[in-house]
UniProtKB/TrEMBL annotation, chains A, B:
One of its GO terms (molecular function) is transaminase activity. Gene3D superfamilies: Aspartate Aminotransferase, domain 1 (3.90.1150.10), Type I PLP-dependent aspartate aminotransferase-like (Major domain) (3.40.640.10). The keyword Metal-binding does not apply. It comes from Rhodococcus gannanensis. SUPFAM superfamilies: PLP-dependent transferases (SSF53383). Residues 20-375 form the Aminotransferase class I/classII large domain. Its cofactor is pyridoxal 5'-phosphate. It comes from the Bacteria. This is PLP-dependent aminotransferase family protein. Keywords: Aminotransferase, Pyridoxal phosphate, Transferase.
């Protein structure tokens, strides 16, 4: 199922490669906002020595783990050590290795409904028993997790895209973050805080990470959304025994990552002044695009559909109130040369027919305006 | 066990990072022979556009699969199509995904004794039932596979490092390659032909790949030994359904590889004239080093130990005839500032105490001479 769904998304992405189609379907950074010159300069510097082309440590270059530890320490009360950082081939690999290391067949895991398909795919591959908890405007419904625990469920882990959710766009509130870790400590489960979008905030920073409240939280992030996907540098901050187990699993999975890419990323993340400016630029431009999407949706759809509040990230969630089936809408939309991902692609147990994920990062405000116009034309057909 | 053993090798590699230690333990290309300028030029060219920094196809860039298909087609009677090529994050990832896709818990798999630890690790992780077959000077003993089959064993796959074996250095003969595929077709198992070293031949090319004889062969290779490990570009040539299953598993494992690295490798592999010259240079220099190792071993050890014939690859296998325990020898060797990997690190069922893997690629002839002198001093202690 997960496999089918995620390949449905890939088929969709193939259609949206048509140059006439305005893509709201992807979840990509805009190539025009990727810091190409800076990445090229750092790459050329790393390539001054052939050492950058050799095999490297499975856990990641120490200098990179140091800079990640420093950045992550700034987000929480207790400093993070390098033994608590494992660098992975994008944060998807961290998810996949964690599932391999922590989840036995039949073990219970809790995910959000709707869920990030990449998490669902790796958890299903372990033959875990997957339970879902809904989201609202304050993120994952921790009261529902409490209900499951009260009913005797004993999950080994809870997965959440805590900040600027994929696909729903919402952010877990500070009080729910505390509640979740209180439950994790009382019932002994782990929380996987999957946070690739947290630095892309357009209306003030999100609450402290869930990981700031407990050591039972494994925090994942990456540079795919802030620097470039092709660097394939993600990481995990976790208790050192979990890092060690993931490192061993990674040895079997692919031996190690690219030392060249890790040296490049080390230079960029360590240049705090540049990185701060770069993030500010991204926030300003993506924030303008999020606003453009909102204005266009309000103009075109009025009361037919509502768009989630966009505090950051890459997605707005459009929810139809008029009985529109977004699977059907997608066919019509492709006829009007605009693409999005229907809610059904993210459904776990349920059958979402009213929701649509709209990515606003890869188009200018003018193109977004045009795209929503096309979507409205498809909708009124 | 595999985990312990492979981490033993890693601990060993940590010791050998001491600058005074001459390392015969690794399995690395010499950084001085990595085509740094050519890789830098191709990388800078790819970085002319930010498209090289975006996400890419899970199966690998089509242009790269085309050049791999072309190169692989030259090695076998039937041309390879791009649907039969999957690019992976080094060929270790191909092994790992294949184990995930093809091997159920309790399934029987056959490996060589001694074995490449990376293969053993991923097969053990699937909880396969692992059977071993010994090697001799003509490679894997296919008669022993026939014995297992005659006794009613029904393996799902047979893994072999067919050419310039790691660790034993030997190459499977042409007649055994044919025998193995005859058995594979009669009994319905798959052969994984793990061939990262085949292009590094120093005494004429090896026999046709096993894959030339049957479609039941999955062939793995990579540029880690010929261009550079940090490019992390490996591949698998296999029936298209297996490529499709591996692609789906890779989506969960890490979404995709680096488009930048794939563009770089595409340029280098497609430049056949340059690539031919580069391989000739590697063969000439590594061949000189293999000769230097042989001469030094003959001079220092005489009849105490024999070195495998080195036709290519990175390793010579030193076998002691005088009762030397190579685990014990390693401690003494480190005292004399020389490192190697003892046979026990590659043992599956058995307990090899007489063998030692010597890597000759990362040292000049003069240093190899010195290294073997130190090893002899440690041995005579």
């Amino acid at each position: 199922m997960a496999a089918l769904r995620s390949s449905a998304i890939r088929d969709l992405l193939a259609v949206t490669a048509r140059p006439d189609v305005i893509g709201l379907a992807g979840g990509l950074p805009d190539p025009d906002l990727v810091p190409l010159d800076r990445i090229r300069a750092a790459t050329v510097r790393a390539l001054e020595s052939a050492d950058s082309l050799q095999y490297t440590e499975t856990a990641g270059l120490l200098a990179l783990r140091e800079v990640i530890a420093r950045r992550e320490s700034a987000l929480r009360p207790r400093p993070v050590t390098t033994a608590e950082v494992a660098v992975t081939h994008g944060s998807q690999q961290a998810l996949s290795l964690l599932a391999q290391v922590l989840v036995d067949p039949g073990a219970t895991v809790v995910v959000e409904e709707p869920a990030y398909p990449g998490a669902l795919q790796v958890l299903r591959a372990t033959q875990a028993r997957i339970m879902t908890v809904p989201l609202d405007a304050d993120g994952m419904r921790t009261d529902r997790i409490a209900d499951l625990l009260a009913a005797g469920e004993r999950p080994v882990l809870v997965h959440t895209v805590s900040t600027f959710h994929n696909p729903r766009g919402v952010t877990m509130s500070a009080s729910r973050r505390r509640e979740l870790t209180t439950l994790a400590e009382r019932f002994g489960f782990l929380v996987v805080e999957d946070d690739p979008y947290g630095e892309l905030h357009y209306a003030g920073p999100p609450p402290e990470p869930i990981a700031a409240h407990s050591d039972r939280v494994i925090r994942l992030s990456s540079v795919s959304k802030t620097l470039a996907p092709a660097l394939r540098v993600g990481w995990m901050v976790a208790p050192r025994e979990i890092c060690a187990a993931v490192e061993l699993a990674k040895q079997g999975a692919d031996l190690c990552d690219s030392r060249l890419a890790q040296e490049t990323v080390t230079e960029l993340l360590a240049d705090e002044q540049w990185m701060t400016g770069h993030l500010q630029d991204l926030r300003a431009e993506y924030g303008r695009r999020a606003d453009a999407l909102r204005r266009a949706v309000e103009r075109e759809f009025g009361d037919c559909a509502t768009l989630s509040r966009i505090g950051g990230g890459m997605f707005g969630w459009l929810e139809f109130q008029d009985g529109t089936d977004t699977d059907a809408l997608l066919s019509a939309a492709l006829d009007h040369s605009v693409a999005f991902v229907p809610g059904s692609a993210f459904a776990v147990d349920g059958q979402d027919r009213a929701g649509a994920r709209l990515c606003f990062t890869t188009n200018t405000p003018a193109r977004l305006d045009d795209a929503v116009g096309r979507l409205a034309a498809a909708h009124s057909r």
